[in-house]
Amino acid sequence: MNGHYSVITNFGCHWTCPYCIVRKTGLNVPVTDMQATLRTISRESEHHPMRFLSFSGGGDPLFPMREPEASKRVAFYREAIRRAGDCLTETEMHTSYFQCGRNVAQVMQQVRFSRVVYHMRPTSLSDDVALALPRKWFDGQKVRVVYVVTPDFTPERIDRIADLVAGNNVVNELSFRQKVNPDNTIDHTCEKYLKAGHQKRWWYIQQDDYNTYVVNDRLYTRFSDIGKEDHR
């Protein structure tokens, strides 16, 4: 155990991302049971130090964000972080809600994650518009944007995105992530170019299982196993 955990949620989703690993690979993520998830975190933290805890989907962790659901979600994320224990040093919220409404902002302001990671939707928003995030919602929190590298990416576009991030007063970090194909093989578009710029202008994330995945009352060490029987 490396102390890295990721809660995979399924509260439903907007299903508007142009590339979705859940839909493309047919992953069967169970509907989130908040109490079962909290019990799993408590049990696991008693035996293995949790140093890193992220929330991602499965379905966007911030969907749908209307009251009273928004307040329940705030309480859930805060309690999950509390139960992770004293060894926890870093937390992340992964979302693709760029045009944040009041209830989404409520989660950011009341939970206070170490980092908010935005999964970009480049076909629905131009790169410059998508990066126009309201700074007041992220005071004291790092903001990272991550792009899945689809086959239409070029070095020129990668550089243009990097330039936009460098000139942005809200976004702190930029990542490009390898795309997973429907058969779980990896797409290597612009791989050599992205590796050359890794830890310089951006981070290049090669697909791997870096975390232990928390899904209700179960733990998985491989993302592709979620919803299957071969779990731990």
Automatic annotation (TrEMBL):
A molecular function annotated in GO for this UniProt entry is: catalytic activity
Question: What SUPFAM superfamilies does the record tag this protein with?
Answer: Radical SAM enzymes
- According to UniProt, the name of this protein is Radical SAM protein
